[in-house]
Amino acid sequence: MAASLAYVGLGANLGDARAALASAFDALAALPATELLRRSSLWRSAPVDAGGPDYLNAVAELRTALEPLALLHALHAIEQAHGRRRPYRNAPRTLDLDLLLHGGSVLATPELTLPHPRAHERAFVLAPLAELAAQLVIPGHGAVASLLPALAGQRIERLLP
Predict the structure, then answer these.
(1) What is the DSSP letter of 103?
(2) CA 61, CA 35: separation in Å to the nearest integer?
(3) How far apart are CA 81 and CA 64, in angstroms?
(4) What is the phi-psi region of residue 83: left when phi exceeds 0, alpha when psi lies from -120 to 50, beta otherwise?
(5) SS3 state at 122
(6) 5 with 100: CB under 8 angstroms?
(7) What CA–CA distance (Å, rounded) separates 115 from 5?
(8) Separation of alpha carbons 141 and 22, rounded Å
(9) Could you tell me the CATH number of the domain that includes residue 45?
(10) Helix or strand or coil: residue 16?
(11) How far is the CA of 139 from the CAs of 14, 47, 85, 120, 152, in angstroms?
(12) Residues 100, 9: Cα–Cα separation, whole Å
C-alpha cells in the first residue's frame, strides 16, 4: 500500500495527561512504516456525554503505509501500554487514541468506521485538526474550518506549550 495521510485524535483525563500525550506522540512516531509529520497544540476540553475531569486533547498528522485496521490495532496497543481500561462507554481514560481519517478511506465495519463517526460533532477534535489542516475535508461533512462554527457552544481552550 502507498503511504496515506492519517489523522489521530489524542485525549486523556486521568493521571498526568500532559505526559501521557507526550508519550503517545513518541509512540506514534515509532510505529512501523509511519512518520509523525505534525502535532497540534494541546487543548483543554470538557468531557462530552460523560463526567470526570477536563481532557487534554491534540491531533497528530501521520504519513503511514499501514492499512487502516493495522493502524487501529497499533493505536489500541499504545492505549493498553498507557493503562487504558474500558469499564463503560465514555469512561475517563489515561489515554484515548482515535483514528479520525486515513487518506480518503470511507469504511463502515463492526471494528472501524472512517471517517470517525463523531469527529465532525466535537470541537476537541476539530479545533486541533484545524491547526494542522483547516481545509481538510471530512468525507460526507465538509471542510474542517467550515464545521467549527456550529460547535461554538462546546468549551475548549488552547493551551500554551
Answers:
(1) T
(2) 9
(3) 21
(4) left
(5) coil
(6) no
(7) 13
(8) 30
(9) 3.30.70.560
(10) coil
(11) 32, 25, 30, 10, 21
(12) 6
What's the length of the chain?
A: 161
The C-alpha cell that represents 18 in the structure block: 500532559
Phi, psi of 87 (to 5 degrees): -70, -30
* Total domains, the chain: 1
DSSP-assigned states of every residue in 49-100: SS-SSPEEEEEEEEEE-S-HHHHHHHHHHHHHHTT---SSTT---S-EEEEE
User: What are all long-range contacts of 138-144, with beta carbons under 8 Å and residues at least 24 apart?
Assistant: 138/101, 139/104, 139/106, 139/115, 140/106, 140/115, 141/115
CA distance 95 to 24: 8
Nearest to 113 by CA among 64, 49, 69: 69
Do 98 and 116 touch, CB atoms closer than 8 A?
yes
Question: Tens-of-pLDDT digits for all 161 residues of the chain?
Answer: 689 999 999 999 999 999 999 999 999 999 999 999 999 999 999 988 777 899 999 999 999 999 999 999 999 999 999 987 766 666 678 999 999 999 999 999 999 999 999 999 999 999 999 999 999 999 999 999 999 999 999 999 999 87
Range of the domain at 140: 4-158
